[in-house]
Amino acid sequence: MIKVRQPSELGHLVQQSIKLDCHFAFRAYAGTASLHWGRLRVLNRIELEADAAFRLDHESAVEIVTLVLDGMVVALVDGLGDSLLNPGDCHVVSAGDGVALATWKTGGAPASLLQLWLLPEEEGGTPEIGLRREGDRFGHQHALLASGFPTDDPEEVDQGRSGDPLPLKARARVLRLALPAGGQAVIPTYADRCVYVLVAAGHVEILGHDAGAGCGIAITGCETVVAHALEPSTLVVCDSD
């Protein structure tokens, strides 16, 4: 099964100096909105103007994965400090028993970022954060950003600096694929898994379906997913149970 969701089908929220494109139900975007795809509960593209701040209050039992697309963002998590995020950096908040306040804010220039919220296998636990800088051991075309599978990071050395994936408490993987025009990427999965692909930039063909920038592609029942880039493209992929 594969379904392409066009940008016009998404939720679009405007909050003062913040714009959100929501693939699943979020805040005022509800009604006929999908609630989740596998363990992927939220996928938002967030556009922040200069000196803007996106805040979350009292979140628990969720893994919040943030990937910066453009600009610089400071992530501040109550009780866990702050992190300066540059383009390509990946930041994870494991909310556990609860985080009172989490904020992503810009300085004197605008920024854009993606947030994926994943439902953990088990609720509870001490809140934690993780940071992974741009660069990866798989090469530029295939970056495993975060994973809930220990075998994806057997050494667990120099976490967040060597390019190893950040740990998740969900049986899920979050990947970034950067493809040149004419290039392709193979996404291995299983028929009982739920794959969601966001075309962050460019234009691709996946399993016979065209998808341009801003599209979301929900896939299940496939052993292998192949993406063909019709122009230089960037994809963000979540594979979960």
From TrEMBL:
Tree of life domain: Bacteria
Coiled-coil parts of chain: none
Gene3D superfamilies tied to this protein: Jelly Rolls
Pfam families for this protein: Pirin, Pirin_C_2
Domain Quercetin 2,3-dioxygenase C-terminal cupin intervals: 164-238
Boundaries of every Pirin N-terminal domain copy: 15-118
Family: Belongs to the pirin family.
Name the record gives this protein: Quercetin 2,3-dioxygenase C-terminal cupin domain-containing protein
Species annotation: Gluconacetobacter azotocaptans
